[in-house]
Amino acid sequence: MRTTGKFIRIAAIIVCLIFIGLLAREGKLSSTWVNIQELFLGKKEQKLTFADYEFKPVIRKDIYQKVLATGSVSLKTGAEVKIGARISGQLEKLLVKIGDVVRAGDMIATIEHEDLLARVAQFSADLKAEEARLTKIREEGPLEIKKLKAEREELNVQISLAQKMLFRNQTLSKKGMVSESVVDKADERLLVLNAQINLIEEEMNLEVMRLKNDIRLQEAKVEKALANILEQETQLSYATITAPIDGVVAFVSTQEGETVVASMSAPTFVTLIDLKKIEVTAFVDETDIGKIKDRQKVKFTVDAFPKKFFDAVIRETRPKAVIKDNVVNYEVMLEIKKHNIFLLRPEMTANIVVTTGVHENVLVIPRGAVKRSGKKSFAVIKADVALSEKRIELGWRDGDSQEVLSGLNDSDEVGILMKPIKKKRGRRR
Asked: Domain spanning 54-74+282-417: which CATH class is it, in words?
């Protein structure tokens, strides 16, 4: 048994020597020995040097506070118009298709309207007839009044003569040259003539009133006929459907030859949208909504143009919250600047950055230069002969820039720890 155990120990020693010889031959003996020491004695802490850092100067610049949000491009109120028919009939012509650009007043479609043309012609004839009757009344009415005026003038002449006759007879009667009966007859003649002229004047007044009433009544008939023709012309205008706004045809729901029935609601032919009247609806988290104010500047991108920034300003913040997936957001409406607005389309997803504040000309270091230990922050700076850690107080963060409130000066340089470059392993032959 002792011989066997001694033999095993000698064999183990020989194997170890052979293994050490192979490691020495491959040049790995020293690294293996270091690993064995680290395994049993623990890994030694490596002390960082200047070579482990990349130093950047502390600079001054403006730091912006920003709020990030997502949203979508949407149409303003009134930017989408559904165009329909206000009369029933067969659609004769449809002059547009999806994607066409139309201007306000351009013809879009026409509906059959032969019956409306006939009604317009009939009411036009009625209007002309009523206007002719009005002309006749205005021309013939004054003739009767002129006749009565002539009779009144004749009676005035007779009254003048009767007054002279009465005065002469009264004078002769005082001298005894004529009897009282002659004076009475002259007086009676004058009274009769006065009664006749009063009657004519009343007839003249009645004729004037009758003429005014006839003219007023006939003018009302003319106005009624004119109203009828205007109504029919309005109905006729409904047969020609025009674009109320400038826009793009987004949807067509009726084809030529179809019969439309306009009852309680107008059937829709075409949907127009004005791509110039668009806005952005941003959904801002409740934690950031307190930083949002009207007229703040905004930049946003859309997925279709990820490298192009669009400018906007905040127009209003909606008071009602929008809850989605248990997250409370508020709708913030953005007014888009006109530049490059033609590139945007409704329902595009928008990535929004709102600038809510600015600190001008403050000390700034790269974010990678900040070291943290609990709630404390430090920065490694380049001293004369060694590295030095200085405690710093941080302010706003803007992208890769970090504002420093205290702890550093303009002449300092802060170190950013460089990551070691991993060597690619070569293929073992």
From this structure: mainly beta
Rounded Cα gap, residues 73 and 350, in angstroms = 7
Domain ranges of the chain: 54-74+282-417, 80-112+239-273, 114-237
Strand arrangement, sheet containing 107-111? 240-242, 107-111, 89-94, 259-260
Q: For residue 253, how many C-alpha atoms fall within 13 Å in the half-sphere facing its CB?
A: 12
Q: Are 401 and 61 in contact (CB under 8 A)?
A: yes
Phi, psi dihedral angles at 245 (to 5 degrees): -140, 165
pTM of the model: 0.56
pLDDT along the chain (429 residues), means of 10: 63 69 59 55 59 86 90 90 85 88 90 86 89 85 78 80 77 74 77 81 82 87 90 87 90 82 71 91 93 91 92 93 90 90 91 90 90 87 79 88 89 81 46
> Checking phi first, is residue 369 left (phi over 0); if not, alpha (psi -120 to 50) or beta?
alpha
Tokens coding 321: 């919250």
| Both tokens assigned to 83 | 């165009």
Nearest to 204 by CA among 254, 248, 143: 143
What is the fold of 80-112+239-273?
Answer: OB fold (Dihydrolipoamide Acetyltransferase, E2P) (2.40.50)
> Residue 371 in contact with residue 380, Cβ under 8 Å?
yes
